[in-house]
Description:
The structure is a homodimer.
Chain A: H1 3-23, E1 27-30, H2 33-40, E2 45-51, E3 57-62, H3 64-70, E4 74-77, H4 84-91, H5 93-96, E5 102-105, H6 112-121, E6 126-129, H7 131-139, H8 143-166, H9 173-186, E7 205-209, H10 210-213, E8 247-255, E9 258-268, H11 273-292, H12 299-312, E10 331-333, E11 340-344, E12 357-360, E13 363-366, E14 370-373, E15 376-381, E16 384-387, E17 396-398
Parallel strand pairs in A: 1-5, 3-4, 5-6, 9-17
Antiparallel strand pairs in A: 1-2, 2-3, 7-8, 8-9, 10-11, 10-12, 12-15, 13-14, 15-16
Helix pairs in contact in A: 8-9, 11-12
Amino acid sequence: MSGNLWTETEARRAGLQRSMEREGLDGVLITQNVGLYYFTGSMQTGYLFVPVEGEAVFYVKRSLARARAESSARIEELGPFRGFGARLAEDYPDVFGKKSPAIGADLDVLPAQTFLRLKEAVPNADWKDASALLRRLRSVKSPYETERIRRAAQAAASALEDGLSRLREGMTELELMAAIENSLRLQGHIGIMRMRGYNQEIMTGMVAAGEAAAEPTYFDGPAGGRGLTAAAPQSSSLRPIRRDEPILLDIGCCIDGYVIDQTRTAVIGRLPDELMRAYETAEAIMRETESALRPGAIPERLYARSLEMAKEAGLSEHFMGFGADQVRFLGHGIGLEIDEWPVLARGFADPLEEGTVLAIEPKFTFPGFGVVGIENTYRIAGDGFETLTLSPEKLYVVVG
Amino acid sequence: MSGNLWTETEARRAGLQRSMEREGLDGVLITQNVGLYYFTGSMQTGYLFVPVEGEAVFYVKRSLARARAESSARIEELGPFRGFGARLAEDYPDVFGKKSPAIGADLDVLPAQTFLRLKEAVPNADWKDASALLRRLRSVKSPYETERIRRAAQAAASALEDGLSRLREGMTELELMAAIENSLRLQGHIGIMRMRGYNQEIMTGMVAAGEAAAEPTYFDGPAGGRGLTAAAPQSSSLRPIRRDEPILLDIGCCIDGYVIDQTRTAVIGRLPDELMRAYETAEAIMRETESALRPGAIPERLYARSLEMAKEAGLSEHFMGFGADQVRFLGHGIGLEIDEWPVLARGFADPLEEGTVLAIEPKFTFPGFGVVGIENTYRIAGDGFETLTLSPEKLYVVVG
């Protein structure tokens, strides 16, 4: 492991301990691969126990050798799962000697079956849902993390440029998507992007054109896309890209664990007037959001202001999806996962902090015609923000 | 939806009802995207309730429009989650009018947080873990499903051929992997492969060479690979491919929801003698397994026999991973997910049935040198088996 990540994961565990103390937790058990990586530097299979005071132990099932090489936390072999409670009691007598210690876990991702087994294996623990605490901790990124998001932004910008240079009338959404993915992969994209939400999946973003981009889907974003099959009902399809229709290029990639998310709109020829006006409204919403983007800004207010602007433009029904299929946010945190906190949505009232990284994505959906919009990733900085996305923000008019 | 899938998903729900009756369940709630698709033909977000008798309802949150277009089960809008219990009680008075109806759910994948909310929303249900029941149902594939696995096998065979034609000494694992992925994607690979196991992830398989292929990892398979980073510690790396070392090409893809999994070993030049002998042992294990592969065969016995053969060859410590990092199976079911049932492992004693599809993968790991082996996907047929994998089974000796 690089010295940076070693020091950093130690500091993250210390930060977790401070949060636990504030929230009255005696310990936290991290079970999810992304959480394990975040707090130890290793993604091997096992459980990380962090007591409110003292040293954490990463109990590893497999691969012990790899965990020992990667983790900044002390490694122990997990051993038989039914003995895990006794093991914890032995290693942490101060915690599990209590009558009913409050133990937090990442219950938003831990499957119920494993949770029920944990309850049996560690019978005196009073289990608490630590999901919100963990998501809040992860929302502020260190320079180490931001540097990786920057690298992902570079790969995405270069892949977009490469993709646009190949864009021709008549090629399918999938052909353009595959070219972009190939460029991303050769730049070190790990081949998957991670989402935390149950049942949420994401390919490497999507290229979607015309009415196919506007097809509604379960995907928790403003545009889902037609997709190749009902068994993967989102992202690119086999539809050919035509002239004078919006082409949505929502591109992500994951470099060294960190994701970027960016969207640009392109057209071969000319956008219909109504869609051009909507694109300009998306730009105006982006500028207005940027004007308020700084430490202290309230996420739900940024979202409320975007709703107002969509309404003033007469585009409420088209904003962030259409009608019943609208999503109720303007942006989202991004880091090791695509769908991090905070969300620019109602209910997110904690002020933004320096170091928070957000993807902001005003988009407008016109069923039968297409989706237009923009998505940039920002870092909240001392006196405002810094744009991490590197692709020039404009409507890309292509000869094709 | 095609007429086939309509009839088929109806039949699957009827099969589920027969299983529920046998196991004394009053109803089953399906929450996972793959399960929803399997039983309705639609992967939109919501909950499918199947009563032991009568009509199922798919309560959909988003997208209703798309679910209505895709699902063979009746669609209702989900509405506010806190009202879901009352809604079920109203729609299924015979079930929820009981004092404590036994309701199964897919607890192996449902997050604990959502499970705890469901327990509150549907207070009189006696929740049961239906994971095993659901996995058993899914293990036998219909002709409709097998046809899709065949298409995936075609794409994998063609991508392997394409990849091998580009293989050159000095190119990186990632470069070869990216070329294969590009071929798969253009043939309609949906861009992701699904695994059911918690924290398990898979790229499009892996290309891994020499000692990098032999590096242990958390991945629940015999070979993990070095990977690009500790944040994605498996699959291909930036290591250049050299002469006279084994190149493991473990290739998967997902066509119309169904996955294939196949492995071939290649070499530029000549394999070291010890690895050549191990490769031949993998072939011998494959032939021996095939000789017993038919309806009625017992999965754990097939595994036990492979262990014996590895031992006879003096290769026990190298079989299915090395030493402490060995996995304890010879193969696994495959379909909508990579890691389906049955597993060819201890504890799987139910006889194989006609229609079961299995990936069987004898492999040998030599730390510092590499991994050799084979993986084929088979369908259990009337009097034996049918090989679904289309790539010729041989050691691929490449000029490079």
